[in-house]
Amino acid sequence: MSNSDIDPAVLAELAPTGTLRAGINLSNFLLVTGEAENGDPVGVSPDVAAEIARRLGVAVQFVTYPSPGALADASDHDEWDIGNIGAEPQRAETITFTAAYSEIEATYLVPAGSPIKIIADVDRPGVRVAVKDRAAYGLWLENNLQFAELVRTETIDASFDVFVDQRLDVLAGLRPRLISDVARLSGARILSGQFSAVQQAVGTPQKNVAAAIWLRDVVEDLKSSGFIAKLIKRHNVKGLSVAPLA
Question: What is the rounded distance in angstroms from the CA atom of residue 170 to the CA atom of residue 38?
Fold first, then answer.
């Protein structure tokens, strides 16, 4: 590895100790699909971080978090240099994000006999929506739903359980997960279309001004070169697509 061509300011911001600390969200089953023998996460997100470290000419250290919210909360605590999570307005208050490198469709599941037929039917008074708290798609709903009530849970599994046990009207989630959920509920349906696409991006603390510009260009190259598409194929991820070029 060589970092002779890298702006010293970028290196100073992203790898002041000679190692790139990459924050990885373990709860996204599309982006982290396994674990290596040494305990490192395996999948598209860790591979993106490793490639960024390779281009910097430094080693990578994975700093793992159980949820995207926990990763975002650590942005002010000098725990990571880059963080791979969904780019949402609340998180952008402390993190500078690149454009997305991948997208995941988010939609709704409704129970058997539901009068809700289309996405637009959900945002109405009296409709209760189960959602994982602080997930990227949950933050989108928080910002955009005006009438429906969000019932937040700690985990994705818990959102399914609450949806069933409390007989809620809607379960919000990523389409790949909802496909497995709908098979467990007789007569349930996944609505066509999407209410949003979760934008998976690379973030860095806002103080890293030079690094943010460099990361932006690197992510665009990873998309245009086919690198992200190859990772999705390598890890056999269904429901994840390469984000459009910025």
Answer: 40
